[in-house]
Amino acid sequence: MKCFSFYNGEKKDEPKSTKSVSDRSNNSTYVGGEMRRSGSELNSLDVSGNSTDALRRTSLPTLSQRTSNLRVFTVSELKSATKNFGRSGMIGEGGFGCVYKGFIKSGEDPSTKIEVAVKQLGRRGIQGHREWVTEVNVLGVVEHPNLVKLVGYCADDDERGIQRLLIYEYMPNRSVEDHLSPRTDTPLPWARRLKVAQDAARGLTYLHEEMDFQIIFRDFKSSNILLDEHWNAKLSDFGLARLGPSEGLTHVSTAAVGTMGYAAPEYVQTGRLTSRSDVWSYGVFLYELITGRRPIDRNRPKKEQKLLEWIKPYLSGGKKFQQILDPRLERKSIIRSAQKLAIVASRCLVRHQKNRPKMSEVLGMVNQILESSTGAGSPQPPLKSLVSREASKETEPKHKRKIMD
């Protein structure tokens, strides 16, 4: 599923030899210059707060301002690591370009090699240099168990010109989208889906609330959640990320971009971005886990193509609800757990973004579902009690709003 730009709700097409970041090579000098020129592109300010002071407050710390362990690679090193970017080693292709599996010398023990994924910026890729810079800026200064680790980067010259590449830890179990696909031979069992929901919520909570600055992911979706060798879920692809609003501002104003089916309605319509936009996307993803369906699927009958519209009539009762559960799951054994997760999803999908929970609150609800479904920990109160106070905000004297649009 590709990313698109939105305007007023409409789609618009659009090893030892490795140097450390502190080395003053031509490579790192070039990258540093590009960081300085492009760093502000990560931050799109509210037009009411575009003073120099506001710009200074909202600039994301770059590699030159924060300690980073990123390694700088040359094209020749990466050609060697990936067998000259051969198609036999290609493991993915997206808006940025192609991704190759490779082996590089460990930074801690050069006598050993580690598996990596090398993402190469394509000449005709939808995403480009700005997204490459954003990836380095974001993943160069943040670190969390539920964020894919960026090992290093490359901005080097060869016969093709400037080569821009990103080197990540290798995630052998591919993306969550791959395992939700009806064509997969390895559909995720329900317990693993709950764990994925928890891991993804942890990653978003870290980005939104646990640093001295806020990062809004802006492209949260199942294809950007990767699974490591132990099936831990990690957020990836930060090319569209933006810094959250600075003190005194309520939102960030940007050209609305994202993936159709995941983008929050108020963001698509106005371009006003908040962390609650990610919360909406997370709610869509929960229904993806519950149903095994994509947010938009043009291959289905017309009434079933848009996931959020299709599920509406089935959310009222137990027997009806079972009809939207992924048929590959043992429906009877997971019905109660899935209904609880649907409650959380619906809270994330409240039309008015101010009434959506923060990701830390969402994480608390998901943790409770996970504990009750596995029998771990002490008995927990019904999930409904956790969301009743927030849900009550949706009902006003003059209008009774639906919980989910």
UniProtKB/TrEMBL annotation:
Protein name stated in the entry: non-specific serine/threonine protein kinase
Primary residence: membrane
Positions of region (Disordered): 1-53, 372-405
This entry's Gene Ontology molecular function terms read: ATP binding; protein serine/threonine kinase activity
Membrane topology, as annotated: Peripheral membrane protein
* Quaternary context: Interacts with FLS2.
Q: Which UniProt keywords apply?
A: ATP-binding, Cell membrane, Kinase, Membrane, Nucleotide-binding, Phosphoprotein, Plant defense, Transferase
Cell location = Cell membrane
Does the entry feature the keyword Lyase, yes or no? no
- List the biased-composition ranges (Polar residues): 18-30, 40-53
Q: Where is the composition biased (Basic and acidic residues)?
A: 390-405
Could you tell me which InterPro entries the record lists for this protein? Kinase-like_dom_sf, Plant_Ser_Thr_Prot_Kinase, Prot_kinase_dom, Protein_kinase_ATP_BS
Query: What's a GO cellular component annotated to this UniProt protein?
Result: plasma membrane
**Annotated binding of ATP, by residue:** K119
A Pfam family annotated for this UniProt entry: Pkinase
For this protein, the Enzyme Commission number is: 2.7.11.1
One GO biological process this protein is involved in is: regulation of salicylic acid biosynthetic process
**Organism ancestry:** Eukaryota, Viridiplantae, Streptophyta, Embryophyta, Tracheophyta
* Catalyses which reaction(s): L-threonyl-[protein] + ATP = O-phospho-L-threonyl-[protein] + ADP + H(+); L-seryl-[protein] + ATP = O-phospho-L-seryl-[protein] + ADP + H(+)
The answer on whether this UniProt entry bears the keyword 4Fe-4S reads no
